[in-house]
Amino acid sequence: MRILYITQYFPPEVGATQTRAFEMAHNLKSWGHQIVILTEMPNHPVGIVPAPYRRKWRVVERYRGLPVVRSWVFARPKKTFFTRMGFYLTFMASAAINGVFIRGGFDVVFATSPPFFVGLTGLLLSRFFNARFVFEIRDLWPRSAVELGELRNPRAIRLAEKLELFYYRKADRLIAVTQGIRDILLTTSVDPDKVALIRNGTNTRLFRHAGAEKKTALGLQDKFVVLYAGILGIAQGMETLCRLVQRCKADPDLHFIFIGAGPLQEEVQTWRQQWELHNLSLLGQLPHREMPAYLSAADACLVPLKKNPLFLGALPSKMFDCMACERPVILSVDGEARTVLEKAGAGLYAEPDNVEALYRAVYTLKSMSLAQRQAMGHSGRAFVENRFSRQQQARELEAVLLDLLAMRQNG
Question: How much of the chain, in percent, has pLDDT values that exceed 90?
């Protein structure tokens, strides 16, 4: 197959979206399919474009063997509604224009959202190349933006909802990454046969227990280490996590690590200073390939989201990274994610936005024997290997795409 893979976020940017896109595309290429990535100039989440990419409309390069076309985007460190909309809309337009000039035809145009507007880019380019259009939905926008208070204008909401249904009708296939998203899609006028479920997961070859060397290198070998790795953002409830650190700071045997960057990183730094959180290390954004060593340095890993009905259908990929590294998970996400964690026997659930619930979960794990925590870790690893490996999910995507092309040839 010849596949144009459109994703606004892609390495060297770090994050769950970027990782899923790269690993899906890398696996498909390794199985003999031709892939071209259409993406933005790297900048996410800090909003600063590196010098080699600045003031350029189009950059063509290779990233670990994959051909990549990078497109200009309006990126700014300050995140407001208007700068975000400029960020999304400029990529939508510039990618559509740059996509037209990619040589060769395509059998499939695959667009992954968020951002929501990448769907229009995918639809337009699928028509240009006379290709099948597949739209992957990792976030139900505009519903999520409304729930989080990022989109309030009634007229804008109605317009976005109409555009959402337009995408769903025009796509030849829809890919949902959680059962919750799939269930909601099936309540719309979408043909159920168009909707496939390919969940989040992790690269089990890369993410595996890497020993305690990193913990020793950080000087924390005598501490019980609780680690959060991910976006320092609104949806993650960063103030709650910092309140948890504050609640635990009298314990000399307990230390927290936050890894990542995002819209609330300045606030997190401010809370650390104001609340004198000497038991918290902020390591910033780190390369994806280094993460297994850092996750392995933890005695427990935090996976939080704010308390919101929207997240009952969420399935954070960072949960699977932690499980693959055999680390017990403290999951502060109810719904589908909680069901998966409890079925795996890989950690503890704590009510979202509840500092005391998180505190109890931390100390429950801390009071367990090493053998008990290791058993949780081994159970999580086995569960991910059997059901949530990225290689397996790439095979599922390949099957969906091949079936779609076979239907076109036979029809």
Answer: 70
